[in-house]
Amino acid sequence: MNVANANPDACAIERNANLSTHNTFGVTARAAGLAILRQPEQIPSLLETAATLGSAPPLLLGDGSNVLLLGDYPGLVVVNALMGRAPIDEDDDSVIVEIGAGENWDALVDWSIARGWNGLQNLALIPGRVGAAPIQNIGAYGVEFDSVCTAVQIYDREQTQLRWLSREQCQFGYRDSVFKNAGVSWWVTAVRLKLQRKIVPRTDYAGLAEELQLLKLDAAKAADIATAVRSLRRRKLPDPAQIGNAGSFFKNPIVSTKQAQELAKHLPAIPRYPQDNGWEKLSAGYLIDQAGWKDFRVGDAGVHAHHALVLVNHGAASGRDLYRLANQISADIAKRWDVILSIEPRVIDSTGMCMR
Ligand code: FAD
Ligand code: EPU
Q1: pTM to 2 decimal places
Q2: Which of the residues are catalytic?
Q3: Quick check: CB of 346 below 6 Å from ligand 1?
Q4: Strand order across the 346-348 sheet
Q5: Which of 22, 36, 59, 65 to mutate to test the pocket of ligand 1 (most atoms within 8 A of CB)?
Q6: What's the rounded Cα separation, in Å, for the pair 108 and 126?
Q7: CATH number, domain at 152?
Q8: Domain check: are 138 and 253 in the same one?
């Protein structure tokens, strides 16, 4: 490791760093530099270093569980390790907690449940760090991050300052937020969440109530709901420690009710989730499965054998191999059923741009 820095606020920079352990696809890639961010005060000096290090802007990562790296990154990759978990306000009904962006998401779920603070139980076992949760407004089992978020602290790299955004300013949507807009140069440094003392259980998501019953768990207890969610997730989704993946590779498409009705004439069993104002969300996994892609493999890039929405790296697939396969799948789905699939993880090329 080549460490260069004299400034006490500065982070050590590892040159020509290996990124394969910093993305859960496990694709091989190198970065011009890699640094671990532990204090917000280190950001200005990190940005100065980044400007001298390569052609791409600095890239902030958590655990790399929602990225597809297309190749080497000719710039500074910064791993977020801004820690801290604390209650900052409370009343008879709720507590507001402030959480550092580098904290592990699933550990936060357990920490909150152990204190009797409810709201995160359905989001158990989602990989990654807290700072990435607002980026795509993580969601699972009927709950999304925005249902508990009250504010997000950012470092604005253009204005070179920390400030808080309200929940409304974050423009949360399904797997979407203001942070995904091109040109936004904000790094999430902390979040504030409002958690409830009294639980309002959400067990209506397909399979969750059944899992609680099967495991003889209490559907009114946050710890039990988290246990059931973890059990379901372990059964359905591949573990990145066993086989490289980034969870769902495509978002579930949202189409007009008219289009969903037309499609259902050919695919009567397709799972349909009604949305507001004449729109419906469809199961992308079902469409990809019906098109025969499950367990497909070209070289080491493949579709998971048990869940068609998850692309996997069987060993030596490159980011470009996986991206090529994803494009083949989405072209096939568009041709068969006129449904456009959008990629969920951030596809990162050598300019630091996130391709959709
Ligand atoms: P990374 O992958 O490191 O980063 C993702 C993107 O956010 C990158 O563009 C990065 O530059 C940016 N980013 C990261 N941190 C910051 C920050 N602090 N400030 C600004 N930008 C930042 N997601 C769900 O929503 N629901 C699920 O149920 C779910 N299940 C999954 C299951 C598996 C097996 C896997 C592998 C992934 C799953 N995901 C799921 C996706 C992933 O876990 C989430 O998107 C998670 O929030 C990513 O966290 P991370 O720290 O790994 O982010
Ligand atoms: N299905 C198939 N074949 C498959 C896979 C799924 O037919 O190979 C059908 C089944 O009918 C199944 C339905 O699709 O019942 C839905 O599957 P699942 O419950 O696994 O949910 P999903 O819609 O595929 C979404 C999220 C997940 C989240 C789960 C649980 C998206 C893109 N994905 O998956 O999030 O964990 O619901 O809430 O919204 C992620 O974002 O990375 C992720 C894993």
Answers
A1: 0.97
A2: 175, 248, 344
A3: yes
A4: 67-69, 346-348, 354-355
A5: 65
A6: 11
A7: 3.30.465.10
A8: no
Owning domain of residue 29: 2-80
CATH number, domain of 327, equals 3.90.78.10
The pLDDT of residue 55: 86
Give the pLDDT score at 106: 98
Q: Indicate the number of domains in the chain.
A: 3
For residue range 74-91, what is the model confidence (pLDDT) as tens digits? 999 999 999 999 999 999
- What does the alpha-carbon distance between residue 30 and residue 290 come to, in Å, rounded to a whole number? 37
pLDDT for 7: 59
Q: Are residues 308 and 338 in the same domain?
A: yes
* Residue at which a domain ends, from 49, 80, 111: 80
To test ligand 2's pocket by mutation, which of 309, 310, 311, 330 has the most ligand atoms within 8 angstroms of CB? 309
The protein residue with its alpha carbon nearest to ligand 2, atom 32, reads 251
Proximal ligand: closest to the CA of 232:
2
DSSP 226: H
In three-state secondary structure terms, 155 is strand
Ligand number with the minimum distance to the CA of 251: 2
